[in-house]
Amino acid sequence: MSFQLHIWGDHACFTRPEMKVERVSYDVITPSAARGIFEAIHWKPAIRWVIDRIHVLKPIRFETIRRNEVGSKISARTAQSAMNAGDLTGLHLVVDENRQQRATLALRDVSYLIEAHFEMTAEAGGDTPAKHSEMFRRRATTGQCFHRPCLGVREFPAWFELVKTPPPSTLLESDRDLGWMLYDIDYANRRAPLFFRARMEGGVIDLVRVRGEGLRA
C-alpha cells in the first residue's frame, strides 16, 4: 500500500558527502532523508520503507547560514580506553576552546510530497501489512512520531501531514537535471553509499524508474 506524506519546513540541509569542510545541501531532499522521516513516524524491524516518488512543491532556493560549532569531538578509542581503565580523568571537551564558525549553504522554505510504501522483512513473524498500514496511518494522522523528524539536520525540524491529494505546487521550473545524488546507504554491503542521477520532470523525481535503471556505488 502506498502513502503520501506532505513534508515542509523553513530550512533544510541534505549535506553533499563530497563537501568536507562547509555543509552544502543537495537541491532537494534525498531518498534516505525521506525514508528517515517515515521511520520517525512508524518503524519496526518487521517493515522496510521504500521511497517511490518525490514531488518538489516549491522553487529551489538557497540561503547561507553561519553558526558557531564545536570543532572536534572525543574519539571512540579515547572513550573506550577510559572505560577499560575505569578512569574518566581527562575525558572531557572544553567547548570554549574548540569553538569555530562554519557556513552552511541550506535550502529555504521547502515543501515536498513524498510517495512511499513499505515491504515486510524476514523479522515480520506474525505481523501483517494491514496491521502496520493502520499503525502508520493513525500515527501520521495524529502527528505522532518516535522522534522529531528533521530536514537533513536536527536544527531544521520537519512538519508533516498525511494527505490523499497533493497540495498545490508553486514550482515555476519543473524540469531540471539535479546531477548525481545520494540514494541511500547499503547496510548489507559494508554501509556502501549508493548514488543515482536525479532528474526532476514535471516537478517529480521518479525513484521507481531510477531503481529500474540501476543504482551506482
From TrEMBL:
Group of enzyme by EC: hydrolase
GO molecular-function terms, A-Z: endonuclease activity; hydrolase activity; RNA binding
- CDD domains in alphabetical order: Cas5_I-C (cd09752)
- As recorded in UniProt, its EC number(s) are 3.1.-.-
Specify the superkingdom: Bacteria
Q: Tell me, what does this protein do in biology?
A: CRISPR (clustered regularly interspaced short palindromic repeat) is an adaptive immune system that provides protection against mobile genetic elements (viruses, transposable elements and conjugative plasmids). CRISPR clusters contain spacers, sequences complementary to antecedent mobile elements, and target invading nucleic acids. CRISPR clusters are transcribed and processed into CRISPR RNA (crRNA).
Regarding protein family, the annotation reads: Belongs to the CRISPR-associated protein Cas5 family. Subtype I-C/Dvulg subfamily.
What is the protein name stated in its UniProt record? pre-crRNA processing endonuclease
The opening ranks of the lineage are: Bacteria, Pseudomonadati, Pseudomonadota, Alphaproteobacteria, Rhodobacterales
